[in-house]
Structures are given as structure tokens and as C-alpha cells.
Amino acid sequence: MSYSKTFICLACSRKPDGRCVAGKELVNGAFGGWIRPVTPGGHSAVTNDQRKYPNGYSAVVLDYVTAEFTKQETGGFQSENHLILEPSQWKLAGKEKQTKQFLAKLVDAPASLWTNTCTDSLKGLNDRVSVLKLTQQIDTLYLIPVTDLIVHVEFIDEKRKVRGEFVYNGVQYRLKITDPKFEQLFDKAGKFDVSIEYLTISLGEPFEGFAYKLIAAVF
């Protein structure tokens, strides 16, 4: 039997074969925990068609989305995952316009962005967690306040690679940015200082022995 959930979309990030959609659930007028709609398969990505509304538009950040699900996924370490009903039946329940004041009420306060004891990737900094440490389900999504972001942009084989460097609770991070709208702001290589307000941070699925910390949305 399927069940319905309504959530405020706080990430609609780039992912192989589609998007990683996530947000905080709206229950009786109050916001609860995170939810990440997923599909069966290796990357669990939600396709553009699956996040489409009856009017032809697709779910984006700061939409209130109502979706149908079949069950909570319990096989991996991401505690927020719910399998979407197929064919998908997403509905637009509204849009949030008061970004700064609204997001301030949804901020999370983790002591750190998971463990920072693993080796860094080649161009990242405190950007991954060994899968050997991910033996049970944990929170893998956070909305955190960040005011200063250094954006690193490079082009490799004509493909744009964007990373964001910031400090959270005294620890420096340099993570891949997978927010497609934000990525498109940068059309040349370089290092750029950007004033922002909030980041959605996601701990992604395992890849070659590590789960990578990603900047899934920039506000």
C-alpha cells in the first residue's frame, strides 16, 4: 500500500541518470525530518519525468511537493530514503518565496559534517567517509548556515568541475557542488568568492569505497 508525503524541496541536485531530490517533510503545518525520494537501482536517481507535475513542470528547490511512496528503504546507510510509487504522481502543493527568513527556521546544527578522519580526495578537503564506517543508518542530509563560499571552477575535457570551499564549526571543507543552477553561473575557470546564506549538504552513495560529501544546493 502506498502512502503520501509532502515536503519542501531543499535540493534537486545533479546525479548520474537524473536528480537527487530531498527536503524536509511537512506534517500538520510543521516541518519534520528529511526525506529523499529514490528509485530502485544502482544510483537511485529520480528522472526528470518522475519529478514532473501534471502541468508539465518539474519539481525544483523551494517547491512544496506531494509525492506517493511505497516503502522506506532500509538496505543502505541513508536513513531518509523512501521509494517512490511508479508511475510517479507528484503534485505541486505550493512555493516558498521568503527564502532567508524561511530557511533560518529549518537549519540543522550537526557538530561536524560526519567524520573528518578519512583521507581527502585528490582535490577535495574533508570530503569523504569510508564505507567501512557506515555500518548503520544515519542522517545524511543537513541544511547549514554558511556566509562565505570560495568556488573553484575548472574545465576538464570541456566538462565543468565545480567545488565549494567553506568553514563549518572551525573545520575547512572543499566539496563537489552538484547544484545544477548554481554551477551554470560559472562559465570560466578560476577561483571566486561568493556571499551566500545556506548550503544543503548530502552524504552520497558509495563510490569506490567512499561516500562523498556533496554541496547539493546553494542558497
Q: In words, what does this structure look like?
A:
The protein has about 220 residues and is mostly beta strands. The chain folds into two domains: about 100 residues; about 90 residues, OB fold (Dihydrolipoamide Acetyltransferase, E2P) (Beta Barrel), CATH 2.40.50. The chain contains two helices and 14 strands, in the order ββββββαβββββαβββ. Strands 7, 8, 9, 10, 11, 12, 13 and 14 form an eight-stranded mixed beta sheet that branches. It has a five-stranded mixed beta barrel with strand order 1-2-3-5-4. A hairpin with an 8-residue loop joins β4 and β5. The radius of gyration is 17 Å and the shape is globular.
Q: Which structural class do the helices and strands define?
A: mainly beta
Q: Report the β-strand fraction as a percent range.
A: over 45%
Q: Shape from CA axes?
A: globular
Question: What is the count of distinct domains?
Answer: 2
Mean pLDDT: 95
Low-confidence sequence ranges: none
Total beta strands: 14
Q: What is the fold's blueprint, element by element?
A:
Layout: E1 3-15, E2 18-27, E3 30-38, E4 63-72, E5 81-84, E6 91-95, H1 99-104, E7 128-130, E8 141-145, E9 148-156, E10 159-168, E11 171-177, H2 180-183, E12 190-195, E13 198-207, E14 210-218
Parallel strand pairs: 3-5, 11-14
Antiparallel strand pairs: 1-2, 1-4, 2-3, 4-5, 4-6, 7-14, 8-13, 9-10, 9-12, 10-11, 13-14
